Amino acid sequence: MAGRPSRTAVYQRLDDAVADLRSRLGGLPKPAEADDIWSDIWHQEAHNSTAIEGNTLVLREVERLLDEGQTVGAKPLRDYLEVQGYGDAAKWVYGQAVAPSDWAADDLVTLQEIRHVHYLCMTPVWTVAPHPHATDQEGPGAFRQHEIAAFPGGMKPPTWPEVDLHMRGWVTEVGTLRTSNGPLPEELARLHNQFERIHPFLDGNGRTGRLLLNLLLGRLGYPPAIIFKRDRERYLQAMRKADRGDVGPLGELIARSVTANLYKFVMPAVAGPAKLVPLAALATPELTENALRVAATRHRLKAVKGDDGHWQSSKNWVDNYRASRHQRAK
């Protein structure tokens, strides 16, 4: 049995998938070009990113709230407003990632955008449940003017008068992403962790940090990362390791998430029914990637093996295989 792929292999798989998306499929689609892709990612991200912070809405309730504005269930008002705010901010991030506003110019991110993301994310819930210690100058979009106690792992955010200086330095470091020689997932992990260590806002730093991570990914031509609630402990452990200088586990978590979203949401929709895509982009709970690989190896699924040893097929070919497979079973 093959072991867990190395971290280097995980990064390489992401690089290969993004290169394929750009060279054959035209790159990341604009939200208006592929509503279904972005809608699915939007629901998943809003649900999971708020759930990491303790939100109790299930995915079905998130979908109804974001799509129809309906509050299904009997959850606290705060939970609905947290999801609504996150959904508003995520939709803005997706649009800005592929069609930047004048705020960004040639920058990957600006201080104004950082404040705006926090403002969109936190304003709805702040109207009913503001931070109990917030001053009038510390509302949504404003940097904190309070000290933050050390986190459980021992990390202590900087004193509040230094936040603006630290954030300007963070924006400058973000600007080096395009010329960095290190693995992109680890560079993103380092910046994501650094943002959380600065902790620039009184509340909502985790949600804002994950939104900014996806803004950077989108502007670099990658789909968003979704940190699933089931991976909460793994994510927090990776953040604690990054606090101590080891960004590898967090980088791997980001790379796996982006690759999964690329295969699950983006590639199948962009490619259409006839174009060849990796088997991972065609897998379903019924037909896993491994099952498709076995079928391709046995020449039961029409597929093409590339020079890199990986199989590719199309939705049409998989549909044909599925139909003939059921016929044989009967």
Automatic annotation (TrEMBL):
PROSITE patterns: FIDO. This is Fic family protein. Residues 109-256 form the Fido domain. The keyword Nucleotide-binding applies. ATP binds at D203, G204, N205, G206, R207, T208, G209, R210. The active site is at H199. Coiled coil: none annotated. Keywords: ATP-binding, Nucleotide-binding. The record marks E53 as: Important for autoinhibition of adenylyltransferase activity. It comes from Labedaea rhizosphaerae. GO terms for molecular function: ATP binding. InterPro entries: Fido, Fido-like_dom_sf, Fido_containing.
